[in-house]
Amino acid sequence: MKTIRTILSITLLLVALNITATDYNASMFGIKSNGTTLNTRSIQKAIDFISEKGGGRLVFYVGRYLTGTIHLKTNVTIQLEEGAILVGSVNPLDYEFMTGWTALIFAHDQVNIGITGKGVIDGQGFTVANNLVDLIHKGVISDPLRYDRPRETIRPQNIYFRGCRNVTIAGITLKDPGSWNQQYDQCKNVKVDGITVDSKSYWNNDGIDIVDCDSVSVTNSYFDAADDGICLKSDSPDFICQNIYVHNNTVRTSANGIKFGTASYGGFRNIKIINNLVFDTYRSAITFAAVDGGFVENVVVDSLRSINTGNVIFLRIGERRAGKKGRMNNISISNVYAEVPQAKPDAGYNYEGPVEDMPRNISPSSIAGMPDAPIENVTLKNIEIHHPGGGNPSFARVNLDELDKVPEMAASYPEFSMFRELPAWGFYVRHTKDLSFENITLVCNRKDYRTAIVLDDVHGVLIKSLNVKEPGSKKLPVYSSKSTEVVIDN
Fold first, then answer.
1. pLDDT tens sequence across 32-77
2. Per the domain annotation, does 34 fall within a domain?
3. Would you say residue 262 has pLDDT above 50?
4. Coil, helix or strand at residue 203
5. What are the angstrom distances between the C-alpha of 168 and each of 183, 232, 301, 470?
6. Cβ proximity of 426 and 401 under 8 Å
7. Which of 373, 421, 430, 475 is deepest in the core (most CB within 10 A)?
8. Three-state SS for 47?
């Protein structure tokens, strides 16, 4: 309730600000809509003028407005009316570099800012990135071209806001960034609502990145991304990403649907993920990880649909920094319906998930802590997962009496496929305390040599109302090893 009250307060504040705002037509500042005139200086002059006058909206009407890097200032909103397109320059040298990143629209330590309307921001990222490669080959820009691509930090994002308060991003379409699409870093009171994201033009095209922020809502939006769709990060051990509300969104990606913790130096607290759809997605519908010494606590997932997604749930504690183990506790996941396909769910995308992970058997949902850092207090309730089954035992089979063959991989990048072959097809749970399964339905379309649920070093387990359907199987649905206080009540 505290999170919802905060969101309502932000909304009322922003509505009040908009009521009193003055509108300024972009043409008033000589900004051209012909798509060829570079308007960077004119747009920046307009933003500076409006901010100095106490604030208002810079309104763009129908047309294509070409620009390099601009900086949004306090009390200024960019209003993109329907048919207005803010177009990023294809010359990489038209973009500035600040706080470790390059972007089309920057804002640093500003208050009461926004980008709203039915218009479009088009970063032209594919062309920019390839022009950047050309400059690197010519020696104009230095870069190692790892994996034959420039570093994501020198390719422009569409939006990068850092240290800002009271931010509204609403209604617009964000497309074709050169790197991540939009990043909100150490910001407070951020509202992202009703936007459309087409972010699959180049590598690392996340849909949205929320980094070490406090009080953020992402609602009623559509994300189509080459990389993670909705991604939370904690880059600093001195900050926490907290009070985040993700509601009523649709996500399609070549990576993970809703994910946090790849960078987990500080922590994640009070996260609500409610009524979302993930579809045609290569990796996990939801991934939560604590692998860099930070923590994950008080996370609620409710009403999630995962259709044609390679994996459903992946919870992970790791130790990518020696001596810095993460921790994870108080995770509630309920009312989930999921369909896992046999074939690669993102086949044919511009940038598919890695084929080097193939061939392998389809992975189960996983909850994987560490021997001395277990995941604690996890509740799974009203979950229905349809799995293709038909596992091939020739793919490095792990028998139930040799679970120690599954590597710990504490220092590895956290992904559902990291362990390769696992001995379960439904859920694989390892190094976990206080786990509750209630009203769980697992449907295997074809007989699988693996067991539905495997518990390895799990302590304090209640399994209630478990329904496993697997054609021709006579196996017990649950196998437990080195586990205690396991109660199965059907």
1. 999 999 999 999 999 999 999 999 999 999 999 999 999 999 999 9
2. no
3. yes
4. coil
5. 13, 18, 24, 48
6. no
7. 430
8. helix
CA distance 64 to 67: 10
Note whether residue 30 is domain-resident: no
Of residues 56, 27, 53, the one with CA closest to residue 42:
27
Would residue 37 count as lying in a domain? no
Handedness of CA 326, 233, 302, 282 (dihedral sign): negative
pTM exceeds 0.90 for this model:
yes
Residue 133 domain boundaries: 2-22+62-489
* Phi and psi angles of residue 152, each rounded to the nearest 5 degrees, phi first: -65, -25
Q: What is the CATH number of the domain that holds 128?
A: 2.160.20.10
The average pLDDT across 175-183 equals 98
Which tokens go with 196? 């459309």
Strands (E), 291-400: 295-317, 327-339, 365-368, 375-389
Amino acid at 181: N
Is 357 among the domain residues?
Answer: yes
Q: What are φ and ψ of residue 351, in 5° steps?
A: -130, 95
CA–chain centroid gap for 208, Å, is: 6
CA-closest candidate to residue 430, choices 408, 448, 414, 410: 408
CA 355 vs. chain centroid, Å, equals 21
Give the residue among 265, 329, 334 at the shortest CA–CA distance from 294.
265
Across the strands, what pairs with 327? 295
Residue 316's SS3 state is: strand
For residues 124 and 91, is the Cβ–Cβ distance under 8 A? no
Exposed/middle/buried for residue 129 (C-beta within 10 Å: 0-12, 13-18, 19+): buried
As a whole number of angstroms, the distance between CA 181 and CA 37 comes to 24
Q: Exposure pattern of 157-190 as b/e (b: 16+ CB <10 Å)?
A: bbbbbbebbbbbbbbbbbbbbbbbbbbbbbbbbb
DSSP SS3 for 179: coil
pLDDT of residue 359: 73
Mean pLDDT of the chain: 94
| Whether 454 contacts 425, CB under 8 Å | no
| Number of domains the chain is built from | 1
